[in-house]
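Hi U.,

Before I forget, here's the chain from the pilot set. I'm dumping it here mostly so it's searchable later in email.
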Amino acid sequence: AAGLRHEQQSLLARFQSCRSLTIVYSEEDDVLGSCAAEQPQPTPEQVAPLCVSTGVGVRELRLESRTMGLADLVACVATLRLPNVRVLELRTSRQEDNDGLRDSSSHAALSALRAALPLLEELRLPYTSYLLGLGAAFSGSSLTSVGVSMPGLLSRPQVRGLLQLQQLRNLEVLASPGE
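Structure:
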């Protein structure tokens, strides 16, 4: 992605009937076992050229990174300019606890996500901590299904936020007996 200039058309643009797109940010230093801090994180601007002219048909988007947090993942989604996405799955190994992910920063990231994906119906998040602020950001939207892939219990603020999603029809949260 870094080798493409913004004025160049992406090779992916040739796949006009593409309905599903998966982008995995692979940090080579992690794979080789050396210090990840030495390898700079990919930026949203580095991956955006991949999607030039492909966004019209994409309905499902999966974005995966070992090191990015919620705000970075959302920035990448927004940069991709895929307004017709209805299903979004975010995966990361970077867990942000409720203390590290403040309600205001989470709400800002999730509000940006709603603006970037106005037709979003299903959202799959990696951790329950990423639910903080979801209700305020997506209340009254087309979001009807929310899932969390890693086990965890919901906090009271998260439950109160989810209650704001009156349109929610499906909620999938894995609870761990040890928590």
